[in-house]
Every structure is written in structure tokens, then in C-alpha cells.
Amino acid sequence: MFDINNILRENIKNLTPYSSARDEFQGEASVYLDANENAFGSPLDEAYNRYPDPLQYNVKKRLSEIKGLPIRNIFLGNGSDEAIDILFRSFCNPGVDNVIIVPPTYGMYQVSANINDIALKRVNLTAEYQLNLEGIAEAIDKNTKIIFICSPNNPTGNSINREDVETLLANFNGLVVVDEAYINFSRQKSFIQELTEYANLVVLQTLSKAWGLAGLRVGMAFASEEIIEVMNKVKPPYNINEASQQLALKALQNVDQVNEWIKETLAQRDKLVLALKNFDFVLDIYPSDANFILVKTTDPKAIYNFLVERGIIVRDRSKVELCEGSLRITIGTPEENNILIKSLQDYK
């Protein structure tokens, strides 16, 4: 049975969070003399002299409407990377605890583990890019606090079998973090709908991909109220700046536009796959539920360098376990995809 107190760090249990001026007063006033701000304004067209809402209420309210979740189950971070780091700092004791990742997967889990001095256990995906449940079960010990699963997975693009994730959620007494950065492009439904079923589930999403807001750095974590309370206690007081909050809120009114881009991206993905299959140097194209494809080639380094010379940048993933010989290609606009294909026609 999962109990948050069994995995929460003792210093975090006893932590008194920083109390900002905006935490102590909530509401509207005519004169603010509490936060040592510049009362005269900003040297910009728009004033940013006041500190932002530390809990981003308006953005969360809109996300609550879109996701069908209470505000108390939503955490906002400076990108999903901040949420990942806060999970390490809240639940993993440096030099003692460990987490499990399932390579090939998103690289920040390993980087964040290393920064926080948390041991990393690697249980590679199967040849079909699915979870090795037996291997994960063998890797778990009394100090294993978190299992990270990226679905749809980066860099392979496929979704992880839902039943396998549910097996972990039901049998592991630590946190299972399902990173859904690419869920908007997937045929699978989000694990957000399972939050009421599993107290140890954390779902990560982002506004960087389908929503086209990578430059604003707004990531989301969805979890039980008690997990969100811990994350809010540990985070910096003003972790999402005012400009990002305002622009994110404005963007979140345009759901129809984003849905149109998603449809176009999926259509372009299908067209790109068909075009790439015509090249002799393309050995395989793996099924994708994301806005990118993983393409196995005869000589990834040579193809990568060939494209770089023509001003086209893809990602060489050939040195990543189980991705040998592969390039990761993001789905671009129709014009960008055509430039890619026409350039590859000149590759010998």
C-alpha cells in the first residue's frame, strides 16, 4: 500500500516553505508596499514590476477546465524539468536512494539524478521498445523511490503498453512518473484519468510541444493533492514568471488552433514516413505516437553531416542504446518536410 510518508524525505516533512509577500496577502489592493518592488513600473511597454502569482491560479484554473481536474491536483513548473528535479529533491535522499529509468528514454531523468546524487538503475526496454517488467521488478529494492516512464517515448516515439504501466502502479510502493510530453499526438488516452485510482501516480505534461510554447518554459505535473502540496512547498516562490503566465493563459484560449496543428502534424508525419521509405539508405521507420519519427539508416553520421551542410538539423541518436543507426526527425511544416526529402534525394 502506497503511503507518501514512507518515501518523503525527513527534511522535507519538516520543511517550512519560504513565505513570500504574495503568499501572505491574496486579493486586490490599491497600494502595494509589501514586496520591495519598484513602484514606478518597468522600462517596457508592459509593466512587470510586480511579482507574479506564486501559485499561478488563473493559468491553473484554465488548465483545470481543459483537463477536467481540480486545481489542487495541478503543479506548474519552469518546464517539466523543474518538476522532475523537485520530485528528486522531495522524495530521494542523496547518496542513499535510487530511481529506475527505462532506456532509451528522455535524458533529463539521468541528468537530474546525477545532480541530486541519486543512484540510477537502468532497465532497458525490450527490442519492441516496451517495459521489461521482470527486469524492473528485480531492480526494485527498499531504497527505490521513483520509476520514470516516458510515453510516448523519446526518442523512440512509441507509446508504452498501458497495462504494463498499471501493473507497476499497482505493485510498486514508490512514485511512478509517466511523462506525457507528446500525449497530444498519441492515440492513447492520458493517464490523468487514472489519478483517482493510483495515489502514487505523477503525470508530466508540457506546453512546449503541441501547444508551441517551448520558449515560455511552462511544464505541468498532475498528481494527488498531497503530492502537489509537497511540490509547491519545495519549489521556488516565483518559479513561473509573469510574462509566461500571461502568455500561457492567452494561448490556452486557443484550443481549436492547437487541435488543427496536431491534425496537420499527424498528416505530415504519415506523408514523411511514406517518402522516406523510398530511400535505399532507410532501413526502418519505427511506429510513432509523437511529433517525430525514429529512422534507422545505413550511415546515420554521414546522413546527419550531409543535412547539416544544407542547413537542415535532425538528431543523431545512433549512440543511444537500442537506437543504433538511427536519426530522430521532428515533423516540420509541409515546406520544411519537402526541403528535407528533396535534399535526401541528392544523398549518395
TrEMBL record:
NCBIfam families recorded: hisC
Its catalytic activity? L-histidinol phosphate + 2-oxoglutarate = 3-(imidazol-4-yl)-2-oxopropyl phosphate + L-glutamate
Q: Which cofactor does it need?
A: pyridoxal 5'-phosphate
Stated EC number for the protein is 2.6.1.9
- Which pathway does it operate in? Lipid metabolism; Amino-acid biosynthesis; L-histidine biosynthesis; L-histidine from 5-phospho-alpha-D-ribose 1-diphosphate: step 7/9
Q: Which InterPro entries match?
A: Aminotrans_II_pyridoxalP_BS, Aminotransferase_I/II_large, HisP_aminotrans, PyrdxlP-dep_Trfase, PyrdxlP-dep_Trfase_major, PyrdxlP-dep_Trfase_small
Annotated GO biological processes are: L-histidine biosynthetic process
Keyword annotations from UniProtKB, A to Z: Amino-acid biosynthesis, Aminotransferase, Histidine biosynthesis, Pyridoxal phosphate, Transferase
Higher taxonomy: Bacteria, Pseudomonadati, Bacteroidota, Sphingobacteriia, Sphingobacteriales
Q: Subunit composition? A: Homodimer.
Q: Which residues form the Aminotransferase class I/classII large domain?
A: 46-344
Protein species of origin:
Mucilaginibacter auburnensis
Superkingdom, natural source: Bacteria
Gene3D superfamilies xrefs:
Aspartate Aminotransferase, domain 1, Type I PLP-dependent aspartate aminotransferase-like (Major domain)
Question: Which GO MF terms are attached to this record?
Answer: histidinol-phosphate transaminase activity; pyridoxal phosphate binding
**Protein's name according to its UniProt entry:** Histidinol-phosphate aminotransferase
Against CDD domains, the record matches this protein to: AAT_like (cd00609)
Residues that the record marks as modified (N6-(pyridoxal phosphate)lysine) are K209
Q: Does the keyword ATP-binding apply?
A: no
